[in-house]
Specification:
Strand order of the largest sheet of chain A: 5-6-7-3-8-9
Helix content of chain A: 25-40%
Radius of gyration of chain A: 23 Å
Strand content of chain A: 25-35%
Mean pLDDT of chain B: 83
Largest interface: A-B, 31 and 33 residues
Mean pLDDT of chain A: 87
Order of helices and strands of chain A: EEEHEEHHHEHEHEEHEHEEHEHH
Low-confidence stretches of chain A: 312-320
Shape of chain A: elongated
CATH superfamily of the largest domain in chain A: P-loop containing nucleotide triphosphate hydrolases
Oligomer: heterodimer
Low-confidence stretches of chain B: none
Helix content of chain B: over 70%
Order of helices and strands of chain B: HHEHEHHEEHHHHHHHHHHHH
Distance between the termini of chain A: 36 Å
Distance between the termini of chain B: 29 Å
Chain lengths: 320, 462
């Protein structure tokens, strides 16, 4: 498979702060790649370097065959993390304007804008001013504006943030459609569930470094399965069960605990359950759980994807 | 259409579609008309005050006549000035201009008071409290409107000198009081002159005398007498300097606000992913330049139409001044250079700010600097070669305004070429500096300060 994007040893430094360290990965054409990590992990800096908005301190980028995103900007669609459109413009005008900046003739841009707004259920709002639209509607308009020119490569920076669950589902469908139509999609998020459902591949980033690159299944496979046990059981009792390696208390109330017991390589859940009953342990609920991408992230990086890693100083930011 | 033009077109349309733009477009001509018309309206809408003048006894004899004479003389003097102004206006702008100037002066010139016959009961009343009580009645609202008076002037003498007690309907109206004071001053002066044997007619003639003063200069068009035509270039230069200043600052401020709006609405990053920083900056600068040019053309058109209608001969002379010696070309060059310098600077500052308050750190000192040419330009009207004017003309930030004001006085060629070259070189430097700052500011959320601005210029958003 041909790579639409290749990063080799990419680094970015703001003064004393190292935002991205020696980052290398590839995104194959026509695939959906999730670029995952907590806030402040270096995702936005990496995306800005890919787009050519910021230069790299070290390393190389190849996107759609070019060594600088600016050379192929008309073939790229970009939805930034912080979104906004001209408040006094109508959705059709805004979409046509941004399409025109990407080389799409204005009349064609307007036609596509109307069709795409209709398809997204925004037909009734296409001639209203942007400031009259709800946040969810405005985000849809901005997404349309970023892909109206039918880009070969689409970069979406935290596209799900601020959307309600219904709109999040709608956006997932849009991303699948883009890939189905041949576009390569790279989207960043710190919410792992979206990536699990959408991605052909994920790149996990923590503190500026790549922690993992591969499929979602491969990522999950790096983390052991675990048992969730509920009952009046002490952690040391659970630790004696066959195949169990490490127990942590998830919750405890009125002497009833929920325990998370990791299974060692080759450990079987059934053996542990059988031993628990034979040993007379008070097990009221037993569940064998496959690790999620969220679990895999914690296992691979030691960090939670929900914890902000922004530590940039004012001085470092000023140097940008 | 390329990206720069697309951005310029959006920028132009964004403002041209607003009500505020059309209001400001029409505000200047409207206020120019109102500025001229309001004093006339105020004067003409003022009622003519009906005044009675009463001598308070035999010692005051002659004072009422003096007040009446003063009113007549005043009206004659005003009429004389009106005729002079009409003659000058006719020389400059034809019969229509003279007639309009005459009408305006006539309306402005009338002293809005009339001495009316004193009601019999007021004349008959005993001086002192009885008469003053009656005066109060005539100034109040109890009598029918037709019988009411606006002022009662009671004239007397104390130690041989004229005095007056002026009763008026409104406590704040001092028109009659001022007029009576001047009239009595004149009466006293005439009396003193007569006492020492000087004829009253001679005094009157002397007071009416207006000397003929002719201004001459070897640099005038005729080589001798200075005419309005000779003064016109200086007036046009000063006016151009002020118009240029206000247009440049208006345009640059529009850019500042536009960039701030894009920054606060998180649009700049999307724009930067679609066009280069220089394309965005150039597009925005061009769009606002077209906007200010449109405003200038509309204002110029309205001004030209008004001048041609009211004073066609002056209009021809203004046209001659603008066209001779490439004056229009100079103004255009100074407009381009000046606008470029300030527009890119303001846009770069805007890229760091989301609110006007954010911009204050840098805008405060810049606005203070911008006051300097306003002060110096006025000096350039009378003494365009003053050392301070000449030296400050070399400062690129001041060049467009000061050289516009000086251009009609034909400064040395070396100064024209040198200051213009310096201005354009500095403008290009500013474009480079601002381009780096704009790019850095657009992607940064750091608070604006001189330090962060300088850091952004050094780093250029890398």
């Amino acid at each position: 498979m041909t790579a639409a994007l290749t990063l080799e040893g990419l680094s970015k430094r703001y003064g004393d702060f190292q935002a991205v360290r020696d980052l290398s990965f590839q995104v194959e054409k026509g695939t959906i790649c999730g670029f995952l990590g907590p806030n402040g992990a270096g995702k936005t800096s990496t995306i800005r370097m890919i787009l050519g908005l910021q230069s790299a301190s070290a390393g190389k980028i190849s996107i759609l065959g070019a060594d600088d995103g600016r050379k192929v900007r008309d073939r790229i669609g970009f939805l930034p993390e912080e979104r906004g459109l001209y408040k006094k413009m109508t959705p059709v005008d805004a979409i046509a304007f941004f399409g025109a900046l990407k080389g799409l003739p204005s009349s064609e841009g307007r036609k596509r804008a109307k069709d795409m707004l209709d398809a997204q259920g925004l037909g009734a709002s296409k001639n209203k001013k942007m400031k009259e639209l709800s946040k969810g509607m405005a985000q849809k308009v901005q997404l349309i504006a970023s892909v109206v020119h039918r880009p070969e490569f689409v970069i979406l920076d935290e596209p799900f943030s601020g959307l309600d669950p219904v709109n999040q589902q709608g956006l997932e469908a849009v991303i699948r459609d883009l890939a189905a139509n041949g576009a390569t999609v790279l989207f960043s998020t710190h919410v792992m569930q979206h990536a699990e459902r959408l991605c052909d591949k994920v790149v996990l980033l923590a503190r500026g470094r790549k922690a993992f690159e591969g499929t979602v299944s491969e990522a999950r496979a790096t983390t052991p399965r675990f048992l969730e046990l509920e009952g009046a059981i002490a952690p040391d009792q659970a630790a004696t069960l066959p195949g169990v390696k490490g127990v942590e208390v998830v919750s405890e109330r009125d002497g009833v605990r929920v325990l998370k017991a990791g299974l060692s390589q080759g450990g079987r859940g059934q053996d542990a359950l059988k031993a628990a009953f034979l040993g007379g342990l008070d097990v009221r609920r037993f569940e064998l759980r496959e690790p999620t991408l969220h679990d895999a992230f914690i296992g691979l990086t030691g960090d939670s994807p929900d914890i902000d890693q922004s530590t940039k100083s004012q001085g470092a930011e000023a140097a940008r | 259409m390329n990206r720069t033009l697309l951005i310029a077109r959006r920028e132009y349309a964004a403002y041209a579609k607003t009500v505020g733009f059309w209001l400001s477009l029409l505000a200047f001509p409207l206020f120019a008309v109102l500025g001229g018309a309001i004093p006339i309206l105020i004067r003409t809408s003022e009622p003519v005050r009906e005044v009675v003048v009463i001598e308070e006894g035999p010692q005051a004899v002659g004072l009422a006549g003096a007040v009446q004479d003063a009113l007549r003389l005043d009206q004659e003097r005003r009429e004389g000035r009106r005729l002079e102004a009409m003659a000058e206006a006719e020389k400059a702008g034809g019969q229509a201009g003279a007639s309009a100037a005459g009408d305006a002066l006539n309306r402005l010139g009338d002293l809005r008071l009339r001495i009316v016959e004193t009601p019999a009961d007021l004349t008959a009343a005993a001086p002192g409290e009885a008469r003053e009580a009656l005066a109060r009645r005539y100034l109040g609202d109890e009598l029918p409107e037709a019988e009411q008076l606006d002022s009662v002037v009671l004239l007397d003498r104390a130690d041989g000198k004229p005095t007056a007690r002026v009763w008026t309907r409104r406590a704040t109206d001092d028109t009659v009081e001022d007029f009576v004071r001047d009239a009595l001053k004149d009466a006293n002066r005439r009396q003193v002159f007569q006492t020492v044997g000087i004829d009253a007619g001679v005094v009157e003639e002397t007071e009416k005398f207006r000397p003929t003063v002719t201004a001459l200069s070897p640099k005038s068009a005729s080589g001798g007498e200075v005419s309005f035509r000779d003064q016109l270039p200086g007036i046009i230069g000063l006016a151009s300097g002020f118009i240029l200043w206000s247009l440049i600052i208006t345009g640059a401020s529009i850019l500042l606000n536009s960039v701030m709006e894009e920054k606060s609405n998180k649009i700049l990053e999307v724009l930067l992913s679609s066009a280069s920083a220089s394309e965005i900056l150039t597009g925005k600068v061009l769009g606002v330049a077209l906007l200010t040019t449109s405003v200038m053309l509309v204002w110029g058109g309205i001004g030209a139409f008004g001048l041609i209608s009211a004073a066609p001969e002056t209009a021809v002379q203004v046209g001659e001044v603008l066209l001779e010696g490439g004056m229009l070309g100079y103004f255009a060059a100074y407009a381009v250079g000046g606008y470029l310098m300030y527009a890119v600077l303001f846009a770069a500052i805007g890229a760091f700010c989301e609110t006007p308050r954010d911009a204050q750190t840098l805008m405060g000192p810049i606005m203070m600097i911008l006051v300097v040419p306003i002060i110096v330009m006025q000096m350039a009207l009378n003494t365009p070669d003053a050392p301070v004017v000449r030296i400050l003309s070399w400062v690129p930030f001041f060049t467009p305004f000061l050289m516009s004001a000086r251009a009609p006085s034909e400064p040395p060629l070396i100064e024209i070429v040198g200051t213009m070259a310096g201005m354009f070189a500095f403008a290009l430097f500013m474009v480079w500096v601002a381009g780096r700052a704009f790019r850095a500011g657009a992607l940064s959320d750091v608070k604006l300060s001189w330090k962060s601005f300088a850091g952004a210029i050094r780093g250029g958003g890398k």
